[in-house]
Amino acid sequence: MNCRGWVALLAATVVLAAPAGAKAGDLTGLVNPFTGTEASAPDFGTGGGAGNTFPGATLPFGMVAFGPDTIPGLTNFTAGYTWSDHQIRGFSLTHFSGAGCALLQDLPILPVAGSLSKSPVIAGSSDLDPAIVPDFSHKYEKARPGFYNVTLNPGKGDQIGSELTATTRTGMARFTFPRSDTGTLTLNAGGSTMANYLAAVQVDPKAREVTGVSESGRFCWEPSKYKVYFAARFDRPFRTFGTWKGATLSPGSTGAKDVSPDAFNYKPIAGGPPFLPGNPSTTAQAGAYVSFAAGKSRPVGVRVGISFVSVAQARKNLSESAGLAIEEVRNRARQRWSREMGKVRIGGGLKEDRRTFATALYHSLLEPSVQSDVNGLYRGQDLKVHRVRPGHAHYSDISGWDVYRSQIQLLAMIAPRRAADIAQSLLRMEAQGGCLPRWPYATQNANIMNGDPSSPMIATIHALGVRGFDAKDALRAMVKGADHLCHSENADYTEREALGDYLKRGWIGQERNVTSAEHSVSKRSEPWGTASTTMEYALADFTISRLARALGRKDLAARFLKRSGNWRHLVNPASRAIEPRYSDGSFLPGVTPSTEDGFVEGSSAQYGWFVPQNLAGRFATLGGRKAALAKLDDFFTELNAGPGSPYAFLGNEPTLQTPWIYNWLGRPDKAQSIVRRAQIGLYGPGPGGLPGNDDGGTMSAWFVLSALGLSPVIPGTDVMPLGSPLFPKATVNFQGRMVRLTAKNAARKNPYVKGLRINRRSWKKPWLHLGALRRGAKLDWKLSSSPSGWGRGRKLAPPSFGDR
Questions:
Q1: Which residues fall within 8 angstroms of residue 367, CB to CB, at 6 or more apart?
Q2: Under 8 Å between Cβ of 345 and 27
């Protein structure tokens, strides 16, 4: 994902003690939610060098993600929290983990010692009054799965203890004010990170309740809008209350509302996009405050339900935490995380690596987020209210361009019912919004990134044996979007830009290429990265072919398999490289391996390997296997070189699976070595422990699967290249059946596979069909510090799916 900011390299290592009561082998005690909140790589212009994660309280796939937002937030700004910051602007109810552009962070709640004498916001700005913004220190801060705790203004007279936990749809907090006359909580309906079109609040002192709505959007500065409704209930009567609108504070007021027809937060950031001007902000500014007697230092408790449907639905969602103390909700959250994360267990290895693994698994289970309420109601992409069937959920916040490469595969393996619901959610979006989405969030489409990733997601989920969604309807929707230009009124989204060119010629002409900023803001129906978009469409066509084949539609399978070879049109015979091409057939002049023009977050060299459906075909266009091997060796001169480079960029998606291409070239030992270098050199358990944006758990899922010795490379299939496990023992609850993994001599220094047995039988292939494990299996590796001949035979290579 692309955005802004530049920071120095950082690889600090902060670890947390296991929570009291954690069971032996429980991975939740090893999780560090702060991992990814600081940069460990340069800002290559693809969303900064941090993981863009957040440390707040949430459940797996939770609608509520209740956590701190810090300022100035120059490094990890998109998720709200930056490790190197020392002030908190509030605890907001919604976050997304890993995006390259800022979004959500709705309804920040901020405790203030004392009373308010003026509005807490600065008119015409996205900033708060500096007098009420508290300091914090990591010395007085903790985060664990489902819980966050920090002392604001530690050691000062206005010190405030803040504890947060969550259910799926509610946030719960306890604020302990100092022994003073008054403690105040502000609820800022106009505090969303990308500004607000609408901010409205109502105060009901008799019910001890504050309700309201925040309307925001502007994800990657796009013209999208969503509304989130909230209902906050307090455990103590109000001493005083009031509202604000802009700079006007209204004590005793029970309502406030502000609107902005063109909401933007214009706060300048050094190195930010040039099309953004400086201050002021045009956000709607309205909120409520409630004050409490604090003479005996009594804590104040609040429960906040949210909904994308209505305030009434937000109140219904409060039933999840009704009658429960914060300790009970916290314990239930920990148990929920333990149950979800318990589907994968590891044993042995270095504690540092176990922490990295546990945290990666945790981050893999944050997104997508539940969007339906406790009674099944949700707001669809037609902005109407619908109901999901009992026992199911509707999901959004799906980073399609990213997650189809690793995270969807992990979810299909260990959370198949959720994976089925995610697939069905995509189909609901198509039915209600008109098109299969690319990057849906809240109730909105987003015209972000490129390609047609819903097809790879759905086809992969089906290929891995997940059922429980309408596969026939999925095929219909996929074919419709691949054959006919589909434009949705929801957020002015086009499923496949320049589809007519692609269908006519087999590629998209470079003269139509636009920048990422133009793609988001001004030229939304034009393709960003014509060459990479062509290749994404070809891969999506391949996944349509695979689903059609599985459903017995041989006609569609053959037609789309042929279309999956459209990448060939971009092979320049003179250079053998993948290069942008004009409609008249000529290639973009002056292309080098480092050329970014025509590519999305990558270069000609990096997209030169982006043919997972037919790697054998790509080797042939490179001059054969020997030439391809030499080229791949050179490609891995660097592991995380950035997009404008002839080398690998493992901190971003386009080259994420390139190490395992060696398995096709008869040198799986080279893949094993490179993957181990990446695991140790690019990942870790500290704030700088991710090599780039986590993108909804994509990078984290890559680490989880690779540490188990697995890697999905070909979307739409169950073909799984094999590597070397990082740990001596592991178990995976694969769709309800146990897969047991052992690795003799497993250690950082022993990345090479010397031998493998599956169910006690010798296994020489460096890959397998993952479907063979669905009935349960036992895989026993033998590892070594030096390369072996295992998996090297040409006939042992994973399959390539021809297009001719």
A1: 61, 96, 97, 98, 397, 398, 399, 403, 407, 696, 697
A2: yes
- Annotate 38-86 with three-state secondary structure: CECCCCCCCCCCECCCCCCEECCCCCCEEEEEEECCCCCHHHCCCCCCC
Q: Crossing angle for the helix pair 471-483 and 416-433, nearest 10 degrees? A: 50
Do 205 and 241 form a contact (C-beta atoms < 8 A)? yes
Query: Which of 630, 798, 643, 635 is CA-nearest to residue 723?
Result: 798
Whether 199 and 287 have beta carbons less than 8 Å apart is answered as yes
**Maximum alpha-carbon separation in the chain:** 80
154-199: per-residue pLDDT in tens?
Answer: 988 899 999 999 999 999 999 999 988 899 999 999 999 999 999 9
First to last CA, the chain: 34
The full set of domains in the chain, from first to last, is: 54-341 (2.70.98.10), 368-796 (3.30.2080.10)
- The per-type count for the chain, helices as H runs and strands as E runs, is 18, 31
Q: Using 50, 70 and 90 to split pLDDT, how confident is the model at 270?
A: low
Using the structure block, give the residue that is written with the tokens 């060459």.
531
pTM of the model: 0.95
C-alpha angle 42-48-51 in degrees, rounded to nearest 5: 100
The burial class, CB within 10 Å (0-12 / 13-18 / 19+), for 106 is buried
Residue with tokens 């001599």: 745
- Residue carrying structure tokens 């690596």: 353
